[in-house]
Here is the input.
Amino acid sequence: MKGLRDLSDAARRDLVLGGLTLAVFLAVTVAFPGFAAPRSLAGLLDDTAILILLALGQMLVILARGIDLSVAANLALCGMLAALVDRAFPGLGVAVAIGIASVAGAVLGAINGLLVWKLRLPPIVVTLGTLSIYGGVIYPLSGGAWVNENEMSPAFVAFTRAGFLGLSTLSWFAIVAAIAFVLGLRYLRVARALYAAGGNPEAAACSGIDPGRMQFLAYLACGAIAGLCGYLWVAKFAVAYTDIALGFELQVIAACLIGGVAIAGGSGTALGVVIGCLFIGIIRNSLPLVGISAFWQMFINGVVIIAAVLLSARNRAHVRTILESRAA
Amino acid sequence: MTRATLLSMLCAILALAGCGKSEAPRSGATRVGVVAKSLGNGFFDAVRKGADEAAKELGAEVIFTGPTTPTAEGQIEVLNALIAQRVDAIAVSANDPDALVPTLTRARDRGIKVVSYDSAVAQAGRDAHLAPSSDQLIGETVIALTAELASEGRGKFAVVSATPTSTNQNSWLDQMRKALVARPGLDLVGVAYGDDVSDKSYREAVALLKQHPDLAVLVSISSIGIVASARAVEDQGLTGRVKVTGLGLPSELAGYVQKGVVPKFAIWNPIDLGYSAMQIAVQLARGGDAGKPLSMGRMGEVTFAADGVGAMSKPFVYDASNVAEFAQIF
Here is the structure.
């Protein structure tokens, strides 16, 4: 069956990446034994959680042959909005903050989606534009001032770091999202349509799927997740200012690429993306521990991205030969 | 409007020609126009407070003014009005170093002394510039704070800087290392770079805490870095065991000072800055020479370098006793 062969191929790629990640992890642990301590691992997951959430959202967009450069700006704007609302009405509670941030994020994502779907503009151009627009709106919204920890309500700040079974709420958000994505992308009808629309839009259109609509839905979901992460970010670092998470979109896209998502769309797994995020998380948490300079951290991240893209490009060539080999 | 400006300038020239230079200062108190970057800004309200204090001591008069939005155009209008009022001196924090030069040159042609403070005017447009502090004074203050917070002045400390290529961060670090020579008990065990972004600063701070379990003080000389460091120390449950200090703003750190995460930190004091700028402006207007050391009253003396720039003082230290008051200001 084609589905099985395709799956085993993706699974093989995830396995290679997982092995590599584990090897890096073990190497760091040998150099710095404390790294594998349970508390240290919980810290690692807490640090990587926002990256995992954003990368899963970004993955949907890339699967649909799009890209969302505006995720970090969306995060910053929604985070500032949540912080400002909390400062003005401290009694509203965390659920309202999460709701406001997610809905605002979804609206921003929908704007991206509509521009790409209805006006048929290139995704990279649209989101490069909205990256500037969303980022630029923060200044007039906040008046350029910071929202500081002592101006936020205690519950607003405490929520992300509250513990459950030794892990922070933030970590649980990532775990639940990862499980939902692994299952959802596998079994949901709309998810299969997304893969089809990204893999071969013409064929998908013939089978009754609107590829533009799939792109819109992907941007909508990605935006909502970015908005949610806006609250999580502001609560985690207990500060909101104009350019939080500046440039973070590049790490998010890098995590997707390392995780084996094909930049041309239609191929990639949620498990791969999560492993890709953990890989980046381990690298960026361990290099300062081992005492490697900031410049080498950038260098290593770059090498890993290129290597991962090489790997996934070769895999894609492999996938394309499946039809022929089946005929043979 | 141009005509009105021309007219007022003409009047000013006529008045000057008629009265002669010697009469204006004698006719009453020395009048100094103190110009803010914009009105309704807490920082400059504090500057005004300091200028008023100096005015009382010196028997001078402050005309505090500024544009409603922080633009060079707005400041030029305000400066023109001050020239028309024939003030004796102007102290200005510039929204643009070059755009104000033609207007200020006109003021100086009319015998008005010009001092810039906080944010400098290009050398051509002023008699002197008062910087809040200098790299050397900042380095010394940060090391002094670190020594105070480490028990008995000894122990390990680490620094969370901004980017590895930031000019002022590196200059401050150099001065900190120089100041360290006099304190053999302190041991600088690492410098990490948080790139002035929250997540990287936080991560680097956590790594420093893990790498050095016996760290006594965590120092950050960037406003984003010190907030992230404080957050990291609190999240790691190390409040009180590892003290955070460095440079930051009272409004951003007030919460952490109250919780004891950041017992003390430093930054310049806008009240002192207004006080000192006013002292200098009045002395220059009364015939003082910026080429020689000038008194700044309770703030001591200032010596201006060849480029006309002088440093007011070491940064002011904030702690639980005063941070709440200054958090209202900036």
Q: What stands out?
A: Chain B touches chain A at residues 164, 190, 192-193, 195, 197-200, 202-204, 206-208, 210-211, 224, 227-228, 231, 235, 251-252, 254-256, 258 (CB under 8 Å).
